[in-house]
């Protein structure tokens, strides 16, 4: 915790085609502390992780959408596959990650531990995803 006693919460992701699962995660994360900082994957980072067709929405627009949410205090765009350097720089008290991280190891878990913070993963979240939304759109309306 910082000298001013503010509890800083951090979460990160692509946040491409923002959906209800994103919003619920962000609202829950904000309730865990006094300030919510969102680490946003850059366009290049999203392409590296998700493939050449992504992101659907560019990083500046994704950043603008996130900042429009009352629960988000600030957004930090980052390059690379993970947000570890950003966690080291910001030293948040809490890292919140969604349900996808229960199935796959992720480096941010070690990074938050290294800065003396803790990891929280809400149990109630459903497994909504932007990739699933895109697949539904393509199934219903076709690729053309």
Relevant terms:
144 residues, 17% strand, alpha/beta, five-stranded parallel β-sheet, Rossmann fold, 6 helices, single chain
Structure description:
With 144 residues, the chain is of the alpha/beta class. It has a single domain (8-141), classed as HUPs (Rossmann fold). The chain is 39% helix and 17% strand. The chain contains 6 helices and 5 strands, in the order βαβααβαβαβα. A 5-stranded parallel sheet has the order 3-2-1-4-5. α4 (84-90) runs parallel beside α5 (108-114). The longest helix is centred in the first third of the chain and has 12 residues, at 20-31. The termini are far apart. The model has no long low-confidence stretch (mean pLDDT 89).
Numbering strands along the chain, what is their spatial order in the largest sheet? Answer: 3-2-1-4-5
Shape: globular
Number of strands: 5
CATH fold call:
Rossmann fold
Structural class label = alpha/beta
Please describe the biggest sheet, giving its number of strands, its sense, and whether it closes into a barrel. Answer: 5 strands, parallel
Draw up the topology in text.
Elements: E1 8-13, H1 20-31, E2 35-41, H2 43-50, H3 59-68, E3 74-78, H4 84-90, E4 94-96, H5 108-114, E5 118-120, H6 130-141
Parallel strand pairs: 1-2, 1-4, 2-3, 4-5
Helix pairs in contact: 4-5
Summarize the structure.
The protein is α/β, with parallel strands linked by helices. The chain is built from six helices and five strands.
